Each structure stands twice: as C-alpha cells, then as structure tokens.
Amino acid sequence: MALWGGRFKTASSDIFKEFNDSLPFDHVLVQQDIQGSIGWSKAIQQAGVLTLEEQQQMEQALLDLSAKVAAGESDILASGAEDVHSWVEAELTAQLGDIARKLHTGRSRNDQVATDLRLWSREQVDILIAALNTCQQQLLTLAENNQEHILPGYTHLQRAQPIRFAHWCLAYIEMFKRDSSRLTDARKRMNQCPLGSGALAGTTYDIDRYELAQSLGFDGPCVNSLDAVSDRDFVLEILFAASASMMHLSRFAEDLIFFNSGEANFITLGDQVTSGSSLMPQKKNPDALELIRGKCGRVYGALQGLLVTLKGLPMAYNKDLQEDKEGLFETVGQWHSCLVMAGEVINSIEINSARCQKAAREGYANATELADYLVDKGVPFRTAHEISGQVVLYAIKQQEPIESLRLDELKQFSPLIEQDVYPVLELEYLVDKRNILGGTGKKPVSNIIAQYRHNLGTSDYLVRDAKLTDLRAISKLVDYWAAKEENLPRAEDELIKSIRDFAVIEVNGQVCGCAALYIYSTGLAEVRSLGVSINYQGKGYGKALVEHLLERAKTLALSKLLVLTRKPEFFARLGFEPGNKEHLPEKVMKDCDLCHRQDNCDETALLYNLNNGHPLAIQVTQVN
Q1: What is d(CA 249, CA 91) in angstroms, rounded to the nearest whole number?
Q2: How many CB atoms neighbour CB 169 within 10 A?
Q3: Are 596 and 567 in contact (CB under 8 A)?
Q4: Torsion angles phi and psi, residue 151, rounded to 5
Q5: pLDDT for the residue 623
Q6: Nearest of 422, 370, 416, 415 to residue 392 by alpha carbon
Q7: What's the pLDDT score for residue 414?
Q8: 3 state SS of 395
C-alpha cells in the first residue's frame, strides 16, 4: 500500500501509477534518504517518540540497508514502490516491523524530499568543484609548458593581435574559476535544512531543529516551513552554474576545433580524443569537443524547463516539483563528464609551433605597433592610425608583410619612420610589449601562472608502483611514445602481464608518466617504456621515475641496469654511462634481432652498475 493509501478505497490504476511514480529516477537519492532518516530518528528519539533502544535498532537497520545498497545487493527498481522514500520505509519495516512505522512521525515527504535533494546537491557540488579545479590545473600545466608559443588572437574571427598560447589557456582558467565560485556561493545558500518543516506548517513534536541540521552537516535550519518545502532555488542555481560553465566549455571546444582544423593547424589533438571517418580514411575528427559543444543545449533546456515549471506554482508544495529532479540529475552527470573529457583533450594537445608563428606574422597584426611607434614620435593617435592603415594597403598590394617593406617604402607614408621601426614590428616585440597586468606579455603571463599555482596549490606528485587500474593510462602513454618511435610498442595483453614491472607518476590523482623495470634471467634489468605526458614535461617526473626504478633494482639485488635511448644526456645526468651492445646478449636476442631498425639504429646504450653504486665505464656505441 502507498504511504497515503488509508484514505482511499481502491488502488491507483496502472496507468496513473506509471505516470505518478518517481522511483525510476529518484532512486538516485536512496543514500541521502537513509542519511536523513537516521538524523530524523535521533531527533524524534530526543522528542520522546522513540526509546533509545528503538532508535539504535532503527539506525543500525538503516546503516545495514545503506551498506546493502552500496554493495549493489538491492534491486530498488524492481520493487514497485512509489518513490525512494516508500522503498526505504518498506525495507525498514520488513526488518524491524512496527518500530519502523514510527520513523515517519512528524515528518512529511515534502520536507523529506527537500532534505534529500539538498543533501544530494551538496555532495554533487563538491564533486563538481573538484572537477573544475582539476580542469584548471590541467590548463595551468598546459599554459606553463607552452609559454613561448605565440599564435594569432582573433576578433570577429579575423586575425587581430598575436598572443601567447599560455594567455589563451589562462583565459579559460578565469572562466572556470568563476564557475567554481558560483557553485561555492550556491552551496552556502543550499546548506540549510528543511527537515522538521512537515508538509508545509512545521511539526507539533519538540524537535531541536538546530541540532538536527548540525547532525546532517547543514549550517542551520530553514526558518520558514512554507518556503522550506517549496524552495527549489538551489536547483536553479546549480542549473544556471552548469549552463554558464557548459557555455564556457562549448567556447573552449569551438576554439580548439578551429585550432585543430586543417585551415588553422595550430594544434594536434591526440588519437585518444578523436575519431575517423567510415568513408574517408584521411579524416581525424574532433568528436570529443563536438560532443561537449553539443551537450550544452541539453543543459540549457533543463534550466529553462524548471524556470517555466516554477513560475506559476502557488505556495507551498505541488506535485509539479517532482519535475525538478530528472533535469538536475542529467545536467550534473553531463556537466561532470564534459569536464572530465575536457581534461582528456587538454592532456592530448600538442602545439604546432611553426604554424602558430607563421599565422601570427600574417594578417598585418603589427599595424597597431606601427601606429604606436608614430605616437611615440609625436604623431596624434588618429593620424598615426590613418598612416598605419595606408601602409597596410600598400603592403597588401605588394603582397608583403609590413616588416618586409624597405625603409624608403615606409618613409613615403611618414618621414618620421626610421630604421628603429623594424624591431618594433617583430612578433616577440608585439607580444612582450604588453607587459601590463592582464596582458599577453611574458612577464604578466608568467606572474599569473605563478599566482594560480599558489591559489590552486602546488601540484604534488606521487611516484608509486603501478596497479591494474593504471592500465589505460599506461597504455595511452606507451602508444603515444611508440608512435613517436621513442619507445617500442607494447600490446595491451603484454602490459597486463607486466603491470608489476611498471611505476607511475601521479599528479593530482592523474597518471601522467610511466616506466618499467624489465628483469632478464641473468640479473640484468632494463629501464624501458619511459614516457611522460607531453603537457607534464620539464618538471623532473622522468628523473623521479628512473630514480624510483633504481631503488627497486637495489632492493631486488640486481647487478646492473640497461637503457637504450635517443636522449643519453638525460640518463648520463642520473649516473648512467655508455655501454656496449656486445655486453648485452640478453637484449640483443630478445628485442634487437627482431627490430626493423637494427641495421640503422640511432639509439645509445647506457649501463648503471648496482654492485658498487657507480656506473660502468664502457665504450660508447649506437645500439637498438
């Protein structure tokens, strides 16, 4: 029987039940309903409704039910219950009998669902803030590692003035910072407890609502029962924050789609976030970014839908409010998945520096600098602007950039133009002249990066032995560097079998580097599959991985370590010294004889002697 069935003579029709029941979507709130019920059981025990023993039995039964749900041992959707509240009460009654029937004393589903939804929303806001912060950290790493790259800035989708790529990254960090702050503000307003408001008028039981609110982690109780049960502003705030953030993500996606296009070719997106065409084998499509852009509309729809639902509702609770959940649940899920995917895209980006520079030099972006140069010579800005425009027209006619024009050509527009104009027209000057706070010059960009590093917290990294759950990240790294011919490719089944050989670097919970210690039967071990994600290089992570493997090798009492590399200077700094292929029969037999480059090898062999802690001094040779 439904919780409200006592007043009715007959049951609901199947059609009405299917139309009315909310369990198919509000089962998401089951843990919050259990949490709120535990808090309510304590409140009504203090009010004299339950004995201490009854409350303890009820709390333990609810904790057991929570564990059962977490373990996936409850088929909630198959229960036929009207909603999640009915299901929890039915499960509790089956366990405790009449004691469970006391739980709803003084409580309404109106204040119950309002509490559940605030608890769930608060938890999701914390998850989303963490995801936004991770996205900012990933963008910050991308900016920090690409401060030297310059590309065209755009207005009206036309090349305007050159900017640092890092400056572009920092612009989106600003947007995501605002998204995070909106959620932080919304969390403060939502963190008030409706429980104890009853259906709309409060409860007659002597409930300490301040203590009840505190027990559930709220800052305090809602102080008006009518508002408490009907307020969904907190849902609207999440939906608006999501809409603003998805707009930022969509703009981010659109920029990168253009940057990655054949027309711009400023960046290359990794294979892991792109797909191909079933017809055109040459295509590499930015599907991840297009989906982020596409999902934006669904989030906007949820916000608009709830605004329309709420605008005509009389006080207090109405069944229309059941429509607040599906849009919210989907929005939060889509937003979070888009943030995670944006991080995947960020970590896959490689800058095509030469193409960026070429494009930045085109389009007469230095015309403003020419005008400023004339202003410094005493020419009024409007006059200087006109002269500079005439120079651009002349340069276009000559099909030359301004900086390639001869001095006599420039002087026909103004006798004040001298030889000292040419450094002013150089790309780096254009960018670094803008050294004011917020500008794209090297100094303000590096200062803001340092400030963000402080605000977001220094990226702590962890070097550890790999786990099977790291397989996907390791496989991506190995495949990437194998495609660059820096490492040998490794099949996934091979990686699974050798997962204990690997160590990884973890930064802010994300694996961004790996290396393996492969042991031969003779006591020789090889450092191989060393690779750090392109956007995490230059931070000492490769060094940390090798040192970790050296310590492991010492613990295992190995005699010597081998590495084959095109970057011998890196390993030399760690104490490795050149080795000879003839001293490495194990490696030659296992890999070198099978390598297609064995007759044209450009790798250097280096060895580290672990017996006395000093490297072996052996002749240099080129080996595979």
Answers
A1: 43
A2: 25
A3: no
A4: -140, 170
A5: 29
A6: 370
A7: 93
A8: helix
For the chain (length 624 residues), average pLDDT per consecutive 10? 59 81 93 97 96 97 96 91 94 95 95 97 96 94 92 90 94 97 96 96 96 96 97 97 98 97 93 82 86 96 96 92 95 97 94 91 84 92 93 91 90 92 86 89 89 73 91 93 88 93 88 93 86 85 92 89 88 86 59 57 83 41 30
Residues 6 or more apart in contact with residue 196 via CB below 8 angstroms = 43, 106, 111, 202, 203, 207, 209, 212, 221
C-alpha distances (whole Å) from 372 to each of 254, 319, 409 are 33, 65, 19
Pairwise CA distance, residues 268 & 393, whole Å: 34
Tell me how crowded residue 353 is: count the other CB atoms within 10 A of its CB: 15
At 296 the pLDDT is 96
Any idea which residues carry the catalytic annotation?
156, 277
> How far apart are the C-alpha atoms of 597 and 423, rounded to whole Å?
47
| Phi, psi (rounded to 5 degrees) for 414 | -160, 125
Strands of 348-445, DSSP E: 350-351
Relative to beta strand 220-221, strand 192-193 is: parallel
Which residues are bridge partners to 505 per DSSP? Answer: 463, 513
Name the nearest CA neighbour of 204 among 225, 185, 235.
225
Pairwise CA distance, residues 543 & 22, whole Å: 55
0.90 cut: is pTM over it? no
Residue type, 152: P
Which tokens go with 188?
């403060």
**Measured distance CA(441)–CA(480) in Å, rounded:** 32
- C-alpha torsion 567→570→572→576, nearest 10: -90
pLDDT at position 586: 57
- Cα distance from N-terminal residue to C-terminal residue, the chain: 75
Beta strands in 126-215 (DSSP E): 150-155, 158-164, 192-193
Tokens (6 digits) for 340: 């995670």
Phi, psi of 612 (to 5 degrees): -120, 10
Position 590 scores a pLDDT of 58
Is omega for the bond preceding 90 within 30 degrees of 0, making it cis?
no
Q: Shortest CA distance to 337 belongs to which of 232, 256, 246?
A: 246
- Residue closest to 365 by CA, chosen among 327, 317, 403, 315: 403
Dihedral of CA atoms 347, 352, 357, 363 in degrees, nearest 10, equals -90
Pair of tokens at residue 130: 């963490």
Name the nearest CA neighbour of 537 among 355, 360, 351.
351
Residues 513, 541 contacting (CB under 8 angstroms): yes
For residue 44, CA distances in Å to 15, 56, 63, 102, 316 come to 37, 12, 18, 9, 24
Token readout for 415 is 């006798």
Q: In this predicted structure, what is the pLDDT of residue 521? A: 75
- Prior bond of 316 cis (ω within 30°): yes
Separation between Cα atoms, residue 459 and residue 494, nearest integer Å: 32
Q: What distance in Å separates the CA atoms of residue 51 and residue 54, rounded to the nearest whole number?
A: 5
